[in-house]
Amino acid sequence: MGISRDSRHKHRSTGGRRNIHQKKRKFEMGRPSALCKLGAKRVRPVRCRGGNMKYRGLRVDSGNFAWGSENCAKKVRLLDVVYNSTSNELVRTKTLTKNTIVQIDAQPFKQWYLKKYGVDLSKKGKRAGGKKEEVAEEVEEKK
Predict the structure, then answer these.
(1) Residue 65 vs residue 140, higher pLDDT
(2) Which run of H or of E encompasses 43?
(3) How would you class 38 by CB atoms within 10 Å of its CB: exposed for 0-12, middle for 13-18, buried for 19 or more?
(4) CA 111, CA 102: separation in Å to the nearest integer?
């Protein structure tokens, strides 16, 4: 049969049935979903209407991610699929879809933050402890 993107199989807006009076057409053709997985990069070209090419991602190991509040986007490595609201099977098989929650390697963002603000995000615990001690000393001096 094949995947078709026609609307002849649907009911009319009044609820009545439509008579199917023509066969499926090439321009109504659809294709199965790619179900892109996490792994070494594998991309396949697909010929489309007008001789144009689409590139179907079958496996991906990196992507462009944005840190919205800092207005920064970097190409980073994907580490793992953490959550998918559609199905736990997509998490188990590490399938990438829209709205999938993934774990990434944040090193490019940390380096950017260090260069822009001069703050090392990987040493968060040590820095916070030092500030608390300084504040406590200032409070004692005021008394």
Answers:
(1) 65
(2) strand 42-47
(3) middle
(4) 20
User: What would the mean pLDDT of 79-87 be, rounded to a whole number?
Assistant: 96
Please check whether residue 112 is in contact with residue 72, taking contact to mean a CB–CB distance below 8 angstroms.
yes
Question: Which is it for strands 53-60 and 62-67: parallel, antiparallel or unpaired?
Answer: unpaired
Two structure tokens written together for 19: 């008579």
User: 50 phi and psi, to 5 degrees?
Assistant: 85, 10
Specify the pTM.
Answer: 0.72
Phi/psi-derived region of residue 58, left when phi > 0, alpha when psi is between -120 and 50, beta in every other case:
alpha
pLDDT in tens, 2-50: 899 999 999 999 999 999 999 999 999 999 999 999 999 999 999 999 9
Spell 8-37 as b/e; 16+ CB within 10 A means b. eeeeeeeeeeeeeeeeeeeeeeeeeebebb
Q: 99: how many CB neighbours lie within 10 A of its CB?
A: 8
**What's CA 100's distance to the chain center, in Å?**
6
- Cβ atoms within 10 Å of 95's Cβ, excluding its own: 19
Q: Is residue 97 within 8 Å of 84, Cβ to Cβ? A: yes
- Total residues belonging to the chain: 143
